[in-house]
Amino acid sequence: MKAKNRDQRLSDSRELDGSYDQLTGNPSTSQSKKxxxxxxxxxxxxxxxxxxxxxxxxxxxxDFELSTVxxxxxxxxxxxxxxxxxxxxxxxxxxxxxxxxxxxxxxEENFKTIYSQFFPQGDSSMYAHxxxxxxxxxxxxxVSFEDFVFGLSIILRGTxxxxxxxxxxxxxxxxxxCITKEEMFDIMKSxxxxxxxxxxxxxxxxxxxxxxxxFFQKMDRNKDGVVTIEEFIESCKKxxxxxxxxxxxxxxx
Length: 253
Fold this sequence. Notes:
- This protein is mainly alpha-helical.
- Helix content is 57%, strand content 5%.
- It is built from 13 helices and four strands.
- It has helices at residues 2-17, 36-41, 59-68, 76-82, 87-100, 108-117, 125-135, 145-157, 160-171, 181-195, 207-219, 229-237, 240-246; strands at residues 105-107, 142-144, 178-180, 226-228.
- Strands 1-2 form a two-stranded antiparallel ribbon.
- The longest helix has 16 residues, at 2-17.
- The radius of gyration is 21 Å and the shape is globular.
């Protein structure tokens, strides 16, 4: 009975990442293409052994795989209903996520460590912290596969309003429903710090503050010292550069 339960759990895991053919029971031979989503997964580290265990018919390796997973994602069908990804896309995402994060979750410190490798010329720790907070919707100090695909679904497949709402949540650091000038400055400074001082053209130390002053003046339409979600969305929709950036991921898949 114990062995049967173990086999069932392993089968569920393999169905989720598409690593075997459900019709024949044989390992899948199809090779997934490297997409932007897979490269994006590289930004999501977690505590893991030096190499992720590969799926094998060996009972020893099967047991090792199960022992490394401390968080089991929702069923494929449920995730498909809750996101705008197809089953095959979810399998690609899960396979990459599991390879990077065998434990099934990402903690903030490891998120920062890997994120820093993509911006060696600057300090990405603060921006990585803000980004992690945006993905950690349950506020439990970790990002699960579900947290990741829910956020990614909005970023890649959401409507303009969905994406702008997600961006507003990123800037609204204390989650009180509005953005202050200091909150906007904290985010903007973290971006400048991440890009580094050796960019071309070079940035002045007061560039983040000047950027915020200009942007906040446009957004705070009633001049009450805060930017509401309505003001944020309206202002962004009128900014051609922001709208173009929002459309970059429309045809990624």
